[in-house]
Amino acid sequence: MDPNKAPASFRKRLKLLLPLWQEQGFVSPEQGTRLSEFYQLHQIKTENTQLLLSIIYTIGSVLIGVGVISFVAAHWNEIGRPVKVAMLFAAMLSAHGLGFYFWFVNGNYPKLGHALILLGTLMFGANIGLMAQIFHISGGAGRMFGIWAIGAAAVAYAVRSIPNATVAIVMSFVYFIFFGRIWWWGPENMTWWYPVVAAVVLLPLVYLCNSRWLLWLVMINLAISSCFSFGEYGEFLGAYMMTVGLAASFLGVGVFSQSSRSFQHFSRHYMNAGAALILFFVYLISFGDLAEEIQEAGRLFSQDALVAAIAGCVYVVFYVAVFGVSVGLNFKTISDPLTVLLLGAGGLVMGVIGLISPLSGWVLTNVLLIVIAASMIRASFSEEDRRKFWCGAVVLGAVIIGRTLEFETGLLIKAIAFTGSGIGVIVGGVLFEKFMKKRKVLYA
Amino acid sequence: MRKKYYLILAVILQCAIIAAVPAPKLFARLTGREITIKTAPVDPYDFLSGYHVILNYEISSSDLSAGLQPHENQILYNVLVKGEDDIWHSHSIHTSYPEDVPADAVVMKGKWQGWRRIQYGIEKFFIPEEHRQDIERDLRQNQRQALVDIKVDRFGNAALLRLRVDDRAYEY
């Protein structure tokens, strides 16, 4: 594993605790030096400064980019068309050229060079819009974002740039939202290919840049676009099948990433995303009306919903494969009760739709959510994990609020439910923080 | 350091993309035939959107001949002929580029949008911020007199040149 990919919080805490461990004799001076060297603890301060510098340069580039866009959008009337076009090219090439110089020729300011190349990509996007303005081209702003994404992806691939890859992912998603048939005016036959192209073009960038941030962006992009696409062809059932299939894929890739030396740190993120997707859909089905709608749609399953059937098969195959491999290889993370529970939830809900009545499904999903929330909160205490506690609290709160809104209960009951949830979250939070503080004191 | 060569290639690609965006319009401007078409009245509360005027052409809402049932976004070719008023009007609409087009006719390519509407890619006329109020007022008062000069190339692509209201011409 690359020590630089260890969480920053872990390295900072290790740097803080190492002298204490050496003083207490838990760690010998040699072991301390080796740990310090392996996790490059002496670089933490420099890394912080570099990170701050990168953030400042990036924010600066984005601000200048927005400024240039506004300046040109003011449609400066006095300048002739050829001069305008020349200015646009000159501005973009200057940014890229200066970036190239500082990064590759001078070599002393790579971060500034990187920021200038990002500025060049932002100007590239602005220039597409301005060309449309100069030549009075109409025909949908959506396409512009798609073209912008292609240019940004090219630069991201060329220099393995996370900010440029971010622009590519965001712009391609905006293109999908604006141009896909999500809205009634969108063109036909576009939604089905977008998730496939996005996966093929954008996922390699995640691995090239080795970035968790990009991983999350691509996963969110794929999750939303796939659901929309399958919703288009297979109605709600299609979207449901696709989501569960995608969640199982994320979990599967997460499990397999554990055996990868270079991308082991992606594993947890893939699995969290998979779990979050399943959890979200279980929550949707916990609403009685939606459960009934899915059950209605479920009858189509045996008739002609081919897309939904394929997605269902993909899910079942992944589920069996992931579970089989995890049991066979005895992976550590998969034995986490929460993950197993979430994996089981997906399968259970699948069964509920086809076999059991909506009422049973509704009861089961609600019970499941409460069990998941309780499991998260229990795990948060045993693992001293703050994130799991708050996830559990959010799930529990969402169940209570969902049921309160679903039924036409009196205002008084609603008031009691909301107030009770609020007090519960505050009291629970305070108790948990006290627990964490106590543990910290014990181990400090 | 292959990165720097890849970056050069990526920037060349970006330049090519920017150049390709206005290429059909530029070709129409350079080689096309200039004609004048009429803009149909538009919703007075809708024609100015941001810094562009939305133009609703007379030739955009043409009646299709019986038997012609295009699907959404299908390419259509509108044959225009010059009227006695020097304005060009729709003569016939085809699903493929018509053969034996008379010398005094022009073919314009558009996309069927449903609801009797064809889009030609020249529906937005971008205007400078400082002239926004004047153009808006002018169009509101003289909606039925608004004309547009365009150029149409031999493939049917159109490029917008100027907007005319009475004797006033707006060209940006």
Main attributes of the structure:
heterodimer, A: mainly alpha, 0% strand, B: 172 residues, alpha+beta, 4-stranded antiparallel sheet, 3 helices, globular
Task: Describe what this molecule looks like in 3D.
The complex is a heterodimer of chains A (444) and B (172). Chain A has 444 residues and is mostly helical. Chain A is 81% helix and 0% strand. About 2% of the residues of chain A have low confidence. Chain B is α+β, with helices and mostly antiparallel strands. In chain B, β9 and β10 form a beta hairpin. Chain B is globular. The interface between A and B is large, with 39 and 37 residues.
Which helices and strands, and how do they pair?
The complex is a heterodimer of chains A (444) and B (172).
Chain A: H1 8-24, H2 29-38, H3 44-73, H4 81-105, H5 110-134, H6 141-159, H7 162-179, H8 194-209, H9 212-257, H10 267-285, H11 288-298, H12 306-329, H13 337-355, H14 358-383, H15 386-406, H16 411-443
Helix pairs in contact in A: 3-5, 4-5, 5-6, 6-7, 7-8, 7-9, 8-9, 9-10, 9-12, 10-13, 10-14, 11-14, 13-14, 14-15, 15-16
Chain B: H1 3-20, H2 23-31, E1 33-38, E2 48-49, E3 52-54, E4 75-82, E5 88-94, E6 105-114, E7 117-119, E8 124-126, H3 132-141, E9 146-152, E10 158-165, E11 168-170
Antiparallel strand pairs in B: 1-9, 2-3, 3-8, 4-5, 4-6, 6-7, 9-10, 10-11
